[in-house]
Amino acid sequence: MEYISTRGKVSGVGFIDAILMGLADDGGLLVPARIPQVSADTLKQWQELSYQELALEIFTLYIGEEIPREELRQLVDDSYSTFRDADVTPVRKLHEGLDVMELFHGPTFAFKDVALQFLGNLYSYVARKTGSTIHIVGATSGDTGASAIEGVRGKEGIRICILHPHGKVSKVQELQMTTVDDANVLNLAIDGTFDDGQRIIKELFADVQFKHRYHLRAINSINIARILAQTVYYFYAYLQLARRGQAAAVSFSVPTGNFGDIFAGYLAKRMGLPVNRLILATNENNILAHFVSEGVYQPGEFRGTYSPSMDIQVASNFERYLFYLYGEDASSVTELMEQFKQNGTITIPQEKLAVVQSDFSAHAVLNQECLDTIAHYHKENGYLLDPHTACGVAAADRLASESGATVALSTAHPAKFDESIRLVGIEQPFPSQISGLFEQSQHVELSPASNEAIAARLVKFFE
Ligand SMILES: Cc1ncc(COP(=O)(O)O)c(C=O)c1O
Ligand SMILES: N[C@@H](CCOP(=O)(O)O)C(=O)O
Fold first, then answer.
1. Predicted TM-score of the model (pTM)
2. Distances in Å between the alpha carbon of 133 and those of 138, 159, 217, 277?
3. What's the fold here for domain 91-109+225-422?
4. ipTM summary value
């Protein structure tokens, strides 16, 4: 399989090089040169596979023979052996017509572990096999950072620096990142938002000389491996429902910020998974919901909400969707992204909006609606939703009449967001892995949110 850039100036890149490249060298995002197709017969054959077996099949479609099958199997097995549930991403019924897929059974209690346990092991594998230097830089609104650090802490030949917005992540997220004392980990708390961090990371990657000189690698969903690993659980959810005798198309409701997770669902659908609606659930940072209703993509004022990991204005993977919306035409994408850089807005014509609305439904969940949803499901179903999952569930309920059977993605464990859960008057027990964090000392540096300050610190860390 080869990978190409959404901007058209990078092509013919193999899987391992695509992982190492992160952001495409022309400033675009890498996508597969062709989307592999999965037939109804193949889906039937996959029905009894375990999560690990299914992941192996799907990864093989995207990796080909670049990683020998038995070595890939070992990578997959190692990556999911750290999960606390035998099903890795189990699906549980909330009420008739609505299931949740629990994606939080990995080491850091958020869906990011599903891809980042794999990517961490993949980086080690690539470092061993090719001798490449792995210097990871990433931005986080809280979950990616903790999960990426966990995936590579203490690993030979790898260093990682994570930027998080100072004071804008939950206490547990902060502790998960900053209590790690391995020498290969650097935490920078920046004076700004997640969007500032993501912009800095992307601009550092776009400086190709700097990127190559310091061997910068990505762990954000810029990296195509993240997206590919996240498609697996859409298939697995469908297959779990099919095993229960529910073989019709399923809708998915996805709490959305950087558009990576829902893009993985879109890719799964394009591969042939019978998906009915993809429901895009935002919090009050509602740029993407507005895009689905109006066809105008225009970031505005940052809003602090009860679901801080989704407090994102500029959604990185939106560019990947534009690529498919415009018929894989890289010059249209380049033009639109240039317009966005100049004016801060993208407006699509009516006929494109009709396509968007056939791909997605959307609902922006207000703060109070998020809390009400947590309270309602706790009281009526005895199930505690984290505030991000609550956005997905609220959107699924709101759009139930047009969606049919729906799986809402449960993207984090509620213990990570106790500040929000307490506002509903609920006290929850913490898993021991989380309560133990409060005893430990923290390792973090404050930094201005400027390219120069971050670049200078990286040079010191990586040299
Ligand atoms: C808990 C949680 N839910 C949902 C999201 C949104 O996912 P995405 O950024 O892939 O849209 C994030 C972070 O991005 C998250 O950490
Ligand atoms: N919510 C994310 C934001 C970064 O998204 P990514 O999927 O591109 O890594 C986080 O928790 O950091």
1. 0.98
2. 16, 9, 9, 42
3. Rossmann fold (3.40.50)
4. 0.99
